[in-house]
């Protein structure tokens, strides 16, 4: 029992207990929110890496390959038809190609990419040599350069850029798989963390309210029993050192003092009744035997002196009794003050509940903001899908133009052979672009699906936060009920204090009567010595004594009835 008491007495204040309980709830909620925020940041970083680096690199690689094939077709068209428009467009595409190369180097410093760009620069120099030979009137040399050295580099570049694009696609696929895996883990952990937070919060609220209401209910029931007049009930067990423990200890002290006071009042009441009966009998005998005063003077003087001493002793006893009643009343006031302090602590608990509710609303806003950001991310992926659709349309049109060019080349016969080669290159390029666009579309669709799952998971977390807010409101209502119980207890204590004040007032009246009897007894003793000259005066005094004795007996009866209301 002693170990249990030491364990429970570590928290010596209701304020500390309430702050610890709600601090634990708020800490759990903050940890849950921090986990969700960190998880979202991780997903956002992965998405940002895909959108700002890998996807741009993939698109840029495709553009570099397309630009090289297009420039090849323009050179061959220029050499086949000697059309200056092909040469002008080739120069324009060359400038655009330089921009694409610089942009690729800005996005990535990979050695493989630098090597391909160096080869592309070398291929560009070969095309310049071919154009120079053609301009100098040597088309055969120009064709040899384009069909041998330039063609070899072109094939290597096509394979290199294709392999690099495939690697980019693999990286995007890996990032997508990683995002899917993290999304599933976050969804599972969010459910688990939310359930744990809800369960632990409910447990903390239940234990905190139970540790406060249980001892208060015990004290209130104990006080109702005492107010009903039963002082024989066992004292309350004191297991804590907080305000409820102090209230129970003060209640036990008040019960003990009140029990001792009632015992003393009962004993003094019986003594007072016996003495009042003796005094009444003595007064009657004095009155009836006034003719024999001379012969019984000595006996009467002795009896009167004894009566005076008894009245004086009784006056002292009543003085002590009145003092104990006042002490008991002070203890009742102390209990009332302690109860007021408990009421203030309960009010503080209600205020803390309101603060927790406000904190939950802030967390609610944070989760809602995360849901809105996921919606923005979903819109951005839709914009990417629109851009991919535009590229698909351009690729289809390019393929159609290549088909028309091949038909026209076939009609031209031998003169359209070079143009047929250009059309075939354009058709291959369009097919490659179509395949790449199909892959990109698949990746974007997967990202959109996973973004939708993450958004749904955040929405579920938002719903759980709302349920946590509802549980905290329920706990606040429980504290309001506790406040009402404490208020009822204060009223009971004030009722007991009023009864004690009434007992003290009656004790003051009784004490005055006893002092008056003592004074009369002393007057009777003096009258005995003067009986031979004032027997009539003695008879009158005895009548007064008899009247006071009857009044004293009535007061003793009233006091006895008041004491009998309590079960000792």
UniProtKB/TrEMBL annotation:
<keyword id="KW-1133">Transmembrane helix</keyword>
<dbReference type="Pfam" id="PF00015">
    <property type="entry name" value="MCPsignal"/>
</dbReference>
<feature type="domain" description="HAMP">
    <location>
        <begin position="210"/>
        <end position="263"/>
    </location>
</feature>
<dbReference type="InterPro" id="IPR024478">
    <property type="entry name" value="HlyB_4HB_MCP"/>
</dbReference>
<keyword id="KW-0807">Transducer</keyword>
<dbReference type="Pfam" id="PF00672">
    <property type="entry name" value="HAMP"/>
</dbReference>
<dbReference type="InterPro" id="IPR003660">
    <property type="entry name" value="HAMP_dom"/>
</dbReference>
<feature type="transmembrane region" description="Helical">
    <location>
        <begin position="188"/>
        <end position="207"/>
    </location>
</feature>
<keyword id="KW-0472">Membrane</keyword>
<feature type="domain" description="Methyl-accepting transducer">
    <location>
        <begin position="282"/>
        <end position="539"/>
    </location>
</feature>
<keyword id="KW-0812">Transmembrane</keyword>
<protein>
    <submittedName>
        <fullName>Methyl-accepting chemotaxis protein</fullName>
    </submittedName>
</protein>
<dbReference type="InterPro" id="IPR004089">
    <property type="entry name" value="MCPsignal_dom"/>
</dbReference>
<dbReference type="Pfam" id="PF12729">
    <property type="entry name" value="4HB_MCP_1"/>
</dbReference>
<comment type="similarity">
    <text>Belongs to the methyl-accepting chemotaxis (MCP) protein family.</text>
</comment>
<feature type="transmembrane region" description="Helical">
    <location>
        <begin position="20"/>
        <end position="40"/>
    </location>
</feature>
């Amino acid at each position: 029992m002693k170990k249990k008491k030491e364990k429970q007495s570590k928290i010596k204040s209701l304020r500390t207990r309430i702050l610890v309980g709600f601090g634990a709830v708020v800490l759990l909620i903050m940890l849950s929110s921090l986990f969700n925020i960190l998880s979202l940041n991780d997903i956002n970083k992965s998405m940002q890496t895909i959108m700002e680096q890998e996807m741009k690199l993939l698109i840029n690689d495709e553009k570099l390959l397309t630009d090289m094939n297009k420039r090849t077709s323009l050179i061959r068209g220029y050499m086949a038809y000697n059309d200056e428009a092909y040469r002008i467009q080739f120069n324009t595409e060359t400038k655009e190609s330089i921009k694409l190369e610089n942009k690729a180097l800005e996005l990535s410093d990979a050695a493989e990419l630098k090597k391909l760009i160096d080869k592309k620069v070398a291929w560009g120099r070969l095309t310049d040599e071919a154009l120079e030979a053609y301009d100098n009137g040597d088309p055969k040399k120009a064709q040899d350069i384009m069909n041998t050295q330039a063609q070899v580099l072109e094939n290597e570049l096509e394979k290199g850029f294709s392999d690099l694009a495939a690697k980019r696609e693999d990286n995007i696929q890996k990032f997508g798989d990683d995002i899917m895996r993290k999304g599933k883990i976050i969804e599972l952990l969010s459910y688990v963390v939310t359930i744990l937070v809800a369960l632990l919060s409910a447990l903390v609220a239940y234990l905190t309210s139970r540790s406060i209401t249980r001892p208060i209910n015990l004290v209130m029931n104990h006080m109702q029993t005492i107010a009903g007049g039963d002082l024989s009930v066992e004292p309350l067990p004191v297991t804590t050192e907080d305000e409820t423990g102090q209230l129970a200890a003060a209640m036990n002290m008040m019960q003990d003092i009140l029990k001792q006071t009632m015992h003393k009042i009962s004993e003094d009441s019986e003594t007072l009744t016996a003495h009042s009966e003796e005094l009444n009998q003595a007064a009657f005998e004095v009155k009836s035997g006034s003719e024999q005063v001379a012969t019984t003077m000595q006996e009467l003087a002795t009896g009167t002196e004894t009566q005076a001493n008894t009245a004086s002793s009784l006056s002292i006893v009543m003085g002590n009794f009145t003092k104990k009643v006042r002490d008991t009343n002070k203890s009742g006031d102390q209990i009332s003050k302690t109860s007021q302090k408990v009421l203030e602590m309960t009010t503080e608990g209600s205020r803390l509940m309101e603060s927790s509710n406000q904190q939950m609303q802030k967390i609610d806003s944070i989760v809602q903001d995360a849901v809105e950001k996921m919606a923005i991310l979903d819109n951005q992926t839709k914009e990417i899908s629109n851009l991919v659709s535009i590229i698909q349309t351009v690729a289809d049109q390019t393929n159609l133009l290549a088909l028309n060019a091949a038909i026209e080349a076939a009609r031209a016969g031998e003169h359209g052979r070079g143009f047929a080669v250009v059309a075939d290159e354009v058709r291959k390029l369009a097919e490659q672009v179509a395949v790449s666009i199909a892959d990109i579309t698949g990746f974007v669709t997967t990202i959109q699906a996973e973004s939708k799952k993450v958004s749904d998971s955040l929405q579920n977390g938002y719903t759980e936060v709302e349920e946590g807010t509802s549980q905290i409101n329920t706990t606040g209502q429980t504290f309001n009920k506790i406040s009402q119980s404490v208020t009822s207890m204060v009223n009971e204590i004030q009722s007991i204090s009023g009864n004690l004040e009434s007992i003290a007032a009656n004790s003051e009246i009784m004490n005055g009567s006893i002092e008056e009897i003592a004074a009369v007894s002393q007057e009777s003793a003096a009258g005995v010595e003067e009986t031979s000259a004032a027997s009539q005066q003695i008879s009158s005094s005895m009548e007064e004594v008899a009247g006071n004795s009857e009044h004293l007996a009535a007061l003793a009866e009233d006091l006895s009835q008041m004491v009998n209301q309590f079960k000792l």
